[in-house]
Design goal:
Elements: E1 3-10, E2 16-17, H1 29-33, E3 34-39, E4 41-43, E5 49-51, E6 54-60, E7 66-73, E8 76-83, E9 86-91, E10 94-100, E11 112-116, E12 119-124, E13 127-136, E14 139-144, E15 159-160, E16 169-171, E17 177-182, E18 195-198, E19 201-210, E20 213-218, E21 231-234, E22 245-249, E23 252-256, E24 264-267, E25 287-290, E26 299-304, E27 308-312, E28 316-320, E29 330-335, E30 348-350, E31 353-357, E32 364-370, E33 375-380, E34 392-398, E35 403-408, E36 413-419, E37 424-430, E38 435-442, E39 445-452, E40 455-462, E41 468-483, E42 492-497, E43 500-506, E44 511-525, E45 529-533, H2 539-542, E46 549-561, E47 565-567, E48 573-574, E49 592-599, E50 613-616, E51 623-634
Parallel strand pairs: 2-3
Antiparallel strand pairs: 1-51, 3-45, 4-5, 5-51, 6-40, 7-8, 8-9, 9-10, 11-12, 12-13, 13-14, 15-21, 16-17, 17-20, 18-19, 18-21, 19-20, 22-23, 23-24, 24-25, 26-27, 27-28, 28-29, 30-31, 31-32, 32-33, 34-35, 35-36, 36-37, 38-39, 39-40, 41-44, 42-43, 42-44, 45-50, 46-49, 46-51, 47-48, 47-50
């Protein structure tokens, strides 16, 4: 038996954490650039891996909620936090305003929204659409939509015939206060405050008297009091449901679906967002149509990209027309993935492709236009890391770092680094002491709603922090008691004092005591990072029985790293960085950039095990750019 020495260099983690199903596919590029386990780290677009930022605590919230970004301009950037019948506005990490809203906590997952200038349009299938406006940092208002109205008071809203064609309607008079009598039961309580058209003329229903009668006010003088089948009613109402989703495209307001018209699209008049009257079909007038196919297509989202994209429960559609007009509009089904029906997860744009969550809750897709086929394709971005994608409930994209953060129902975050120019599509998993519940990227900030021991809070990634739910403090003189930790009352927290880890302290009355006193403190909850590579690919050279083997050494090229612990089979051991000059134990180690070589001992018989592992929870920076392993294998 002879022993063969081999050396392997890993210069990129650009495939991220991959499924164990790839353990036999060393021939794939994803195997060479992938990892077996990546926890609480980011993959950089260049291929390196770095410990994730800590989370700065901003505020305790009233309960579970949704996050919405609101950017009026580069200097007026807000985070809107929706909780149970309340919207709180944050600016520069502090609350500046709050307003009462009509949406309960149970309704928040179905909220959809779009922004135009200083106005946010918000819809929910069971609540009348609302318009939220900002007049200053601290002044926000909310109120129902109002459709354009003519001099007569008739509104430019869409109408639809819900009742069977045989049912007739008879008004008691042609003007003023009247009673509407139906030939068969059709009125429900939700018709109150809704509009009905009789012979094209509008009346406003005031109260429902019985299933066949309602009191109303005539808006436009009616032609006759005779019973007629020529009538219809408002498409949006408490009786039949409100819009499911909303967006803008080619200077038109786009509304997608309601409870009873789930597959219908409405596009407003061009340049007149609240005019949805169909008119006579002129090019600039409103458009209305239904998605008809061999399957249910309840609209879940509309998105303005290269074309108007419509995401439904069963398929994805492309709406074309340049420009869109009532006469030239075309809609073509593209793919059959489907979107979630239990909640709204808004699609987002990344480099011209639209990212959306599949209906199964196990996939995240990239809906991108292929010029060769002149059609859209929906590639599965998580096919190599299926175990990390589990019931996504929210997502947003950090363009500056090219990180897509996908919040999962289990409280973890799947973070995907996307950089097509370098063929980087890499997943990692972020975890915290508690759970992530929602995410939004606003300006340069990435904000989360977290849940810890039943308490919800707003937190933000902060590169200067190495702890979660953390607060910081500074003093011109050394101080031993630090306050501001009421959100972690009774819990043990990690402490960094004057840049040096100081172990744990228990929060009592919102404060901790550090010994010795310090001039700067960071305190919060610790989290552990983990980097474990895939096993070496020995199948081609040595076959499946390649054993025993021995790791001789692992050389890590690090950048600005202050703490590193490597496990080569004997447990994680810290790597010292103080190599030159006098050692001052009261001074934190300076970040190190260069190569670190760790020697290993012992032979192993399991070739499917990883040769090394980096793990630790020290709240200090860590970045790995490349790894070179040297090993010996008995042939």
């Amino acid at each position: 038996m002879s022993s063969i020495s081999t050396r392997a260099a890993k210069t990129s983690f650009a495939a991220g954490e991959v499924s164990t199903e790839l353990l036999g596919r060393g021939d794939l590029r994803a195997y060479q650039n992938g990892a077996r386990r990546l926890r609480n780290v980011f993959i950089m677009p260049t291929g390196g891996v770095t410990r994730r930022s800590g989370l700065r605590h901003l505020a305790v919230l009233a309960g579970a909620g949704r996050l919405v970004g609101f950017e009026f301009n580069t200097e007026q950037v807000y985070v809107l936090v929706f909780t149970n019948q309340l919207m709180t506005v944050f600016m520069n990490d502090a609350p500046v305003a709050s307003i009462v809203t009509p949406w309960t906590a149970a309704q928040l997952p179905q909220l959809a929204y779009t922004q135009s200038a200083d106005t946010l349009l918000v819809v929910h299938p069971d609540v009348a659409p609302q318009k939220i406006t900002r007049s200053s940092h601290t002044s926000w208002q909310i109120g129902p939509w109002t459709f354009d109205a003519g001099s007569s008071g008739a509104t430019a809203e869409p109408f639809h015939r819900f009742a069977p064609a045989a049912i007739t309607l008879a008004p008691s008079n042609v003007t003023g206060a009247i009673t509407l009598t139906a030939s068969a039961p059709m009125f429900v309580a939700g018709h109150a405050s809704a509009r009905v058209r009789i012979g094209g003329k509008q009346v406003l229903v005031n109260n429902v008297l019985s299933p066949t009668q309602a009191s109303a006010t005539v808006i436009e003088t009616l032609a006759s009091t005779a019973a007629t089948a020529d009538w219809d009613e408002a498409a949006f109402s408490n009786a039949h449901g409100w819009p499911v989703t909303v967006g803008f495209h080619q200077d038109r307001l786009v509304i997608g679906g309601t409870r009873e018209l789930p597959n219908r699209l409405w596009l407003s008049r061009s340049g007149d967002l609240f005019n949805l009257a169909l008119g006579t079909g002129l090019d600039d007038e409103a458009i209305e149509f239904a998605l008809m196919s061999d399957q249910v297509n309840a609209i879940r989202a509309v998105f303005s990209g290269r074309h108007l994209q419509v995401f439904t429960s069963g398929a994805e559609w492309m709406v074309t027309g340049d420009p869109l007009t009532p006469g030239n509009i075309q809609i073509v089904r593209q793919t059959r993935i489907g979107s979630r029906i239990d909640r709204i997860v808004p699609p987002i744009d990344i480099d011209g492709a639209t990212i959306f969550v599949g209906r199964s809750g196990r996939t995240v897709h990239e809906f991108a236009y292929a010029d060769v086929e002149a059609a859209y394709q929906a590639n599965d971005l998580g096919i190599l890391a299926r175990h990390l994608v589990s019931d996504p409930v929210d997502l947003d994209y950090d363009l500056g770092k090219r990180l897509l953060h996908v919040v999962m129902a289990n409280g973890s975050v799947g973070t995907l680094t996307i950089y097509r120019a370098e063929q980087v599509t890499a997943w990692t998993r972020l975890e915290t002491d508690g759970a992530f519940r929602a995410v939004v990227v606003v300006g340069d900030g990435v904000y989360f709603i977290t849940e810890r021991a039943g308490t919800f809070a707003l937190e933000r990634f902060d590169e200067s922090l190495g702890l979660d739910a953390a607060i910081t403090g500074e003093s011109v003189l050394p101080v031993d008691v630090w306050s501001g930790l009421g959100h972690l009352e009774g819990r043990g927290v990690r402490v960094m004092a004057d840049g040096t880890p100081q172990g744990e302290a228990t929060v009592t009355a919102g404060s901790i005591t550090v010994d010795p006193p310090a001039m700067s403190v960071q305190a919060g909850l610790g989290f552990a990072h983990e980097i474990e590579p895939l096993p070496p690919d020995l199948l081609e050279s040595f076959g499946a029985r390649a054993a025993p083997l021995r790791l001789v050494s692992v050389t890590l090229r690090v950048q600005d790293t202050a703490s590193l612990a490597v496990d080569t089979g004997r447990g994680a051991r810290p790597v010292p960085f103080r190599r030159f000059g006098a050692i001052d134990l009261d001074t934190p180690p300076a970040p190190f950039t260069g190569d670190i070589t760790v020697r290993a001992l012992g032979w192993r018989r399991d070739a499917a095990r990883s040769l090394w592992r980096i793990t630790g929870d020290t709240p200090m920076p860590l970045t790995i750019l490349a790894v070179t392993t040297e090993m010996r294998v008995n042939s």
